[in-house]
């Protein structure tokens, strides 16, 4: 189990680094668009979590 967890964590960190590098290579206009869309996604996840909490 320890090796699997370590491998999954390593893959996750590698993916995060690749994503960060791609983000930094984008134009500022595209970076702003991604920030806005991520903020909207976070708000939607919060709404969904509240609804689930009300049901449970």
Automatic annotation (TrEMBL):
The keyword Transmembrane helix applies. Keywords: Membrane, Transmembrane, Transmembrane helix. The chain crosses the membrane at residues 6-26. It comes from the Bacteria. This is Uncharacterized protein. It comes from Lentihominibacter faecis.
């Amino acid at each position: 189990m320890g090796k699997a967890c370590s491998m999954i964590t390593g893959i996750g960190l590698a993916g995060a680094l690749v994503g960060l590098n791609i983000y930094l290579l984008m134009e500022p206009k595209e970076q702003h668009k991604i920030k806005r869309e991520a903020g909207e996604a976070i708000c939607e996840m919060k709404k969904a979590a509240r609804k689930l909490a009300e049901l449970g």
